[in-house]
Amino acid sequence: MGKRHPQPAGARGVAIETLCRWQGSGRTVDHVLEPLLATLPARDRQLAKQIVYGVLRHRQYLDHVIAMMASHPLRKMKPRTLAALRVGAYQLLLLDRVPPSAAVNETMRSLKAARQPGWLLGFVNGVLRAMARDRKSLPAPDAALADGRPLLNHPHWLLDRWQRRWGTRIAEAICRLNNTAPPLVLRTNTRRTSRDELLTRLRAAGCDAIPGAHAPESICLRSFAGPVTGLPGYGDGLFLVQDEAAQLACLLAGPLRPGGRHLDGCAGLGGKTASLLLDAAGGVSITAVEPDPRRFRLLRENLARLGLSPQAHPLAGTLEQFAASTRAAFDTIFIDAPCSGTGVIRRHPDIRWNRQPEDLDRYQNLQLNLLATAAGLLAARGVLVYATCSLEQEENHQVVQRFLADNPDFSLDDPRRLLPESAACLVDDHGCFHPLPGEAMDGFFAVRLIRDPGL
Prior knowledge:
This protein has 455 residues and is of the alpha/beta class. It folds into 2 domains: 10-137, N-utilizing Substance Protein B Homolog, Chain A (Orthogonal Bundle); 244-451, Vaccinia Virus protein VP39 (Rossmann fold, 3-Layer(aba) Sandwich). It has 17 helices and 11 strands. The strands form 2 sheets. Strands 7-6-5-8-9-11-10 form a 7-stranded mixed β-sheet, with helices on both faces. A 4-stranded antiparallel β-sheet has the order 2-3-1-4, with helices on both faces. A hairpin with a 6-residue loop joins strand 2 and strand 3. Helix 1 packs across helix 5 (79-94), helix 5 runs antiparallel to helix 6 and helix 11 (244-251) packs across helix 12. 44% of the residues are buried. The mean pLDDT is 94.
């Protein structure tokens, strides 16, 4: 039998338990958090998630302050002790709407429910109460360390490589942006409504909704913090959640030909499949391949909610397994490859702590294998779109360069003619769609590759 954990008490207990189980596991924090959220009343779930994400976004800063206030070194603290101190410190220093007394008392209640020893309770209580008492004199989140380095809440190896590539100003700006909550971005289901109609409906419900900057069917909700399922139109399938960068990347596939064969080789939750179908004329269908059972289930549910099931053919399994089972040649293949995810750290703050430099080579090998498999399925004159949500050259430009060197019958096609005029600035000098993280857009990478039948 596995080790049994006491039932977490309240939002703080779930936050502490999540951080303890996630630390060192290599799993995404959402994978740990979601089942624990199900134990909470609906009113507490958003607070628990906000605390977990907030701790991960500001971990270096919180540890800096805890180290100032505690008599015990952080490296010698037990995981639950440090998690509780981080949860309490985040509420005291960065969550204005929680009174200091509630931040301390509720954090302590969660530790008591976890049956922690009395001496530990006394230690955590003393540190948090001292922090509450002195918080106006404590360093601000943008303070610098003793050596002059700013507290940017990113591992040094990642910050160093970004500084080498883009310089200190841009690298630090990306880090600071990653430490803030992102807007929620929607893609209008134009089969059921228009962007203007959806904007009107969202604003009538009190949402701060504006049109996206570039993607023609995008809507940006600048301050939404509740569950997406509570938005007007969700149950009616009037939109899907999708960042503008991903929406624009789907345009690189070009108009899908009715009657042709089209494949989403790494379908995930179905966002790209849905956008490709919504951008296409009637009569287009897409085969969507996804190996993960949970994501495959959500893929089917999302396509059904959007009314796109008749045009989508989900298949459970890997792309390699699918390739071995078919002789079909596809006109369009979209590969949104697994990657390090460093372009979406703002949305998934655990990524910065889960990744190591050696992961980049591992991802590159996986990405090259996916592209090689996709190339074997592509027809003459076919279009192959390769995309990641990574900022790293090992997963982007280097992958494309190696693929083109190994496949001389492919060439890189300029994507500007397929993008809105305002988005042309997001294409780099190599002809790659490559926006950096911005206020209303994720970091992303995508290329359009054409198979030349004459070679």
